Amino acid sequence: MINRRNFLIQMATVSAGVVVGFSGLQRRAFALAADASLASMRAHGFGELFPTATQNTGEIYLALPKGFEYKLLSKVGSKMSDGHKTPALPDGMACFKVGEAFRLIRNHEIYNGEVPQPNSAIGANPYDETAAGGTTTLIINPKTLEVVKDFVSLSGTLVNCAGGRTPWGSWISCEETTLGQAERADKTGKKIGTYPKSHGYCFEVQASANVPVPPIPLKAMGRFKHEAIAVDEHTGNIYLTEDANTAGFYRFVPKRKQHLVEGGTLQMLKIKGKESVDLRKGLKTGQHFKTKWVTIDNPDPVAADLDESAVYKQGLAKGGATFTRLEGAYADKQGHIYFVSTNGGEVEGGQVWRYERKGKKSGELTLIFESHNRTVLDMPDNICLQPNSELLFLCEDSDYKGTGGTPENYMRILAPNGKIADFAKNITNGLESSEFAGSTFSEDGKILFVNLQAVGATFAIWGNWDSFRQAE
Fold it and tell me: Which pLDDT tens digit goes with each residue over 337-346?
């Protein structure tokens, strides 16, 4: 895996903010320096991207390297096997092998306008019938990559953004909101909330389920703006990210492995010997930190109805570290946890972190990549490692106006040499800014499944992966 090579490199970097107020000569010098930095961050040999039509419908959504093909598996609004329409906004996703078939469990990041909408649940047995988020499951023939069955597998949840797979054959779907029964106002003054049920929880969906699962909120795993989870299969501990401008990185230690409904202890990462360290900016690629964990005394505070940072503030008060907008997370076979800060770093282009367990109570945190040029990497979101390789795939979500980013969205690769390569570009006509989401591989590493969120489409991609290994 990536951690087995010493690929971290020291790169000369330049902050784009320095340009302001420079003379013409200084501007030219800065541009040359930026070009040098750009070259130092790009991985070469992975191939140019070409507009490519889907093998089954002939539509063009993606630009891919030569030798790669893809199929459209599902599209928003299409009728599923259970009679429901495919929900919008597919997001986090995982692939499982159940029997002889692939099973994709797919989140739907539906906001509801942040107010309850009666009878909006996407399927049967909803947690909250006024909430339109949840998950769908696609059963796929692994030989033909045809969908043989699709259905709602979790209903009545809200803003199901990401989550993560478990080693015991389930998907943890996470709600990226803490809206509940209380009424609050958003930034524009609009009244939001007043749901019949509290939101902001994780829910477990078994890959083998053929009908909607019982929607049980895993309250001990915290009530905050959840993004993703990753499971250390050696310990059974679950690591969680929080998508907020001031965010914590969390660990859930279950009372009993694989039995999350029985509860456990939620903790937040702290840098050893330092109180409340801010890791959002001012760091260098390759920088290491010794870490420990502080316990969150009340993981399910009533205050979260009005304050989405109620859990984070508990950890901060005990000296926990602050990140910004933590999103995708992924665990390798050794138990190392990779996670991203989508707008971390000096130019807010994103950071990629790795956490390594060092015993039960401590660990080491490393910044393995920071984007200093947003044309190289711009706001990474969902991530995954390709099985049997050392390639970390990063889905971009750079469609935020006024944040200094690029208008395009790519799927990028962080190679073992610490540099970034392009793998796919969204070229959907009229929806080019739609983010990639839900990247996940089949267990043999041969098929990559991914969503384009605003397009509402799910794809299977395959090709000559060996050429990529040669390019490492």
Answer: 999 999 999 9
In angstroms, rounded to a whole number, what is the distance separating the alpha carbons of residues 249 and 253? 14
Sign of CA dihedral 416, 420, 421, 426: positive
The tally of CA atoms less than 13 A away on the side-chain side of residue 266 is 27
Amino acid at 251: R
> Quick one: CA dihedral 17, 22, 27, 30, positive or negative?
negative
CA gap 150, 137 in Å, rounded = 6
Distance between CA atoms of residues 255 and 266, nearest Å: 11
From CA 349, how far away is CA 375, in angstroms rounded? 9
Residue 276 corresponds to which tokens in the numbers above? Answer: 């409340």
CA 441/CA 96 separation, integer angstroms: 9
Q: Is 401 exposed, middle or buried (0-12, 13-18, 19+ CB in 10 A)?
A: exposed
Contacts (Cβ under 8 Å, ≥6 apart) of 330? 164, 230, 337, 338, 339, 383, 384, 385, 392
* Residue 355: Cβ within 10 Å count: 24
Q: Which residue has the tokens 């109180």?
A: 275
Rounded Cα gap, residues 315 and 266, in angstroms: 10
Half-sphere exposure of 177 (CA within 13 A, CB side): 25
Q: Tally the residues of the chain.
A: 472
Residue type for position 265: T
Quick one: residue 222, left, alpha or beta (phi over 0 = left, psi -120 to 50 = alpha)?
left
Contact 422, 46 (CB under 8 A): yes
Beta-carbon count within 10 A of 187 CB: 5
**Alpha helices by DSSP H, 182-334:** 310-317
Which residues neighbour 110 within 8 Å (Cβ) at sequence distance 6 or greater?
87, 88, 89, 122, 131, 132, 133, 134, 158, 159, 160
- Nearby residues of 360 by Cβ (< 8 Å), 6 or more positions away: none
Q: What is the pLDDT of residues 401-448, one digit of tens each?
A: 667 788 899 999 999 999 999 999 999 999 999 999 999 999 999 999
Q: Model's pTM, two decimal places?
A: 0.92
Nearest alpha-carbon partner for 451 in 148, 135, 154, 107: 107
Residue 412 one-letter amino acid? R
Q: Enter the tokens of residue 381.
A: 């979101």
Closest CA to 269 of 297, 241, 248, 240: 248
3-state class (DSSP) for residue 457: strand
